[in-house]
Design a protein that fits this description.
- This is Dihydrolipoamide acetyltransferase component of pyruvate dehydrogenase complex.
- Its cofactor is (R)-lipoate.
- With 436 residues, the chain is of the alpha+beta class.
- It has helices at 89-107, 129-138, 142-147, 159-168, 210-225, 238-255, 261-275, 320-335, 413-428; strands spanning 2-7, 17-23, 30-31, 36-42, 45-50, 55-60, 67-69, 73-79, 196-198, 204-206, 228-236, 281-284, 287-290, 296-298, 300-301, 307-308, 311-312, 349-353, 372-376, 380-388, 391-407.
- It folds into three domains: 1-85, Beta Barrel (OB fold (Dihydrolipoamide Acetyltransferase, E2P)); 108-188, no CATH class; 212-428, Chloramphenicol Acetyltransferase.
- Helix 2 packs parallel to helix 4, helix 7 packs across helix 8 and helix 7 packs across helix 9.
């Protein structure tokens, strides 16, 4: 027998620690290769730590809610055979071989489903990232996956379950839901959902989700840290609306991407930041850190109502096509809980679209340690005075408000106001005859 130390893996350049949210295995239980052992959370991204070996879990070193540093041993697994290296290359090579084998297995029928596989089905079944990736690559629908009788803990579908189903898929009908030999406990509710508790008078006490607590603390800390000031400006985006309406079908035909207003606006923001580098800073004690890269955070709403901020790295270096692909990809994977920890790190400036909820304007809270955040309001048709060489007249224009919150400790009103004035000039000068 040999003992294998399961360590918290490296999850990105800037991720140093994670919180244990749930142990999926108990001491004494057997574990398969690649089977998820524990669920962890880094700020806003939830993920799992799979086992690199096959064996029996003999020791758990950290309790639920403990904060663990990358590289620390979190559990010990007893394996058959000789000595097993501690999270060494050999087990990782075996994992790589199995992943290659999985890829070969699914290569024969590589039709990707249009809708990403969710982490949790409507019936409450949880699916690991490996199972979801195999299902999506193979073209297995959520209904098929939900119908599989899992052999893992609490009826979870394991890698072997889905690979067996793939092998028999061509000859056998889709499996019907069956009762497991032993009465399985009710599926666990997702960590992010709170269970309401009835109290006197018909009221309810609802426990805040882990993500909700993190966001609440982050917002309070930001308000207590930064001296928030807001500037507002109205922008005429009529030319942009006309241009998008004219080219969006051709854009989709050529690039395979839907062209929304978001990448157009994000590209304009990135170019404006380049003209005002002192907006792209952070305050560290009494020192100002001037950021080299322009990394745009893009606030996205999740199905449970919480927000997450994926980051577009080096946004000023992207053309409109590149920006559109980045925006669409990050937004889709954010909604499917498929972002990697690195993809929500290192933002230097944040943009939030309050207009997607119909709001005309908002006063967003700065995303620390940044010093500014921009809120995009809804685009509306409004009557406006139009100046011409022949005189002024009233016409219908497409307009939007943008709200700029900035830290008055380091960004004064002149800089904060000039920033959005330049953004306005950039967007209003849009050429309706340009290509994309």
């Amino acid at each position: 027998m040999a003992r294998f130390e399961l360590k918290l893996p490296k999850m990105g350049e800037s991720v140093a620690e994670a919180t244990i949210t749930s142990w999926l295995k108990e001491v004494g239980e057997t574990i398969e290769m690649d089977e998820a052992v524990v669920e962890i959370a880094t700020d806003k991204v939830d993920s799992e730590v799979p086992s690199e070996v096959e064996g029996t879990l003999v020791e758990i070193l950290f309790d639920k809610d403990a904060v663990v540093e990358v590289g620390q041993t979190i559990a010990v697994i007893e394996t058959e055979g000789g000595e097993v290296a501690t999270s060494a290359a050999a087990p990782k090579q075996e994992v790589a071989k199995e992943i290659i084998a999985v890829e070969k297995t699914v290569e024969e029928a590589k039709e990707t489903v249009a809708t990403p596989i969710s982490k949790t089905s409507e019936s409450g079944k949880f699916f690991s990232p490996l199972v979801r990736n195999i299902a999506q690559t193979e073209g297995i629908s959520m209904e098929e996956l939900d119908a599989l009788a899992g052999t893992g803990k609490d009826g979870r579908v394991t890698k072997n379950d889905i690979l067996t189903y793939i092998e028999n898929r061509g000859t056998a009908p889709a499996p019907a839901k069956v009762e497991t030999p032993k009465a399985a406990p009710a599926p666990k509710a997702p960590v992010s959902k709170a269970t309401p508790v009835s109290v006197n008078g018909g009221d309810e006490i609802i426990e805040m989700s882990r993500m909700g607590k993190l966001i609440a603390k982050h917002m309070v800390d930001s308000v207590q840290t930064s001296a928030h000031v807001q500037s507002f400006i109205e922008i005429d985006v009529t030319n942009i609306v006309k241009w998008r309406g004219k080219v969006k079908d051709a854009f989709f035909a050529r690039e395979g991407e839907k062209l929304t207003f978001t990448p157009i606006l994000m590209q304009a923001v990135a170019s404006t930041i380049k003209k005002f580098p002192m907006i792209n800073i952070a305050l560290q004690g009494d020192s100002i850190v001037k950021r080299k890269n322009i990394n745009l955070g893009m606030a996205a709403a999740l199905p449970d109502g919480n927000l997450i901020v994926p980051v577009i790295k080096n946004a000023d270096q992207l053309n409109l096509v590149g920006m559109t692909k980045q925006v669409n990809d990050l937004a889709t994977r954010a909604r499917g809980n498929q972002l990697k920890p690195d993809e929500i790190q290192d933002g230097t400036y944040t943009v939030t679209n309050v207009g997607s909820f119909g709001s005309v304007m908002g006063t967003p809270i700065i995303n620390q340690p940044q010093v500014a955040i921009l809120a995009l309001g809804a685009i509306r048709k409004v009557p406006a005075v139009i100046e011409t060489s022949e005189g002024d007249f009233i016409g219908i224009r497409q307009k939007m408000f943008v709200s700029h919150s900035y830290d008055h400790r380091v960004v004064n009103g002149a800089l904060g106001g000039m920033f959005i004035k330049t953004l306005k000039e950039t967007l209003e000068a849009w050429d309706v005859n340009q290509d994309f």
